[in-house]
Amino acid sequence: MAVPKRRMSRSNTRKRRSQWRAEVPDLVPITLEGREYRVPRNLIPAYRRGLLPPPA
């Protein structure tokens, strides 16, 4: 694992941490049982196979 050679200042640490953000999942419209739902792209196969119930 990489180890810093010098201590990073508090302002630099906080500036770096503030740039990280979780992204909103990309919702894609799909049709299940005649109704249209918006679900995350990576879960489309699970919804189509019936592994997940249709979203509320």
Structure description:
It is a single chain. The chain has 56 residues and is α+β, with helices and mostly antiparallel strands. Helices cover 27% and strands 21% of the residues. It has a two-stranded antiparallel sheet. β1 (27-32) and β2 (35-40) form a beta hairpin. The longest helix is centred in the N-terminal third of the chain and has 9 residues, at 10-18. Keywords: Ribonucleoprotein, Ribosomal protein. Residues 1-21 are annotated as: Disordered. Pfam families: Ribosomal_L32p. Belongs to the bacterial ribosomal protein bL32 family.
Measure the end-to-end span: 44 Å
Helix content: 25-40%
- Low-confidence blocks of residues: none
Give the count of helical stretches: 2
How would the blueprint of this fold be written?
Layout: H1 10-18, E1 27-32, E2 35-40, H2 44-49
Antiparallel strand pairs: 1-2
Family: Belongs to the bacterial ribosomal protein bL32 family.
Keywords: Ribonucleoprotein, Ribosomal protein
InterPro entries: Ribosomal_bL32 (IPR002677), Ribosomal_zn-bd (IPR011332)
Overview features:
56 residues; alpha+beta; two-stranded antiparallel ribbon; 2 helices; 27% helix; elongated; Ribosomal_bL32; ribosomal protein; Large ribosomal subunit protein bL32
Short description:
27% of the residues lie in helices and 21% in strands.
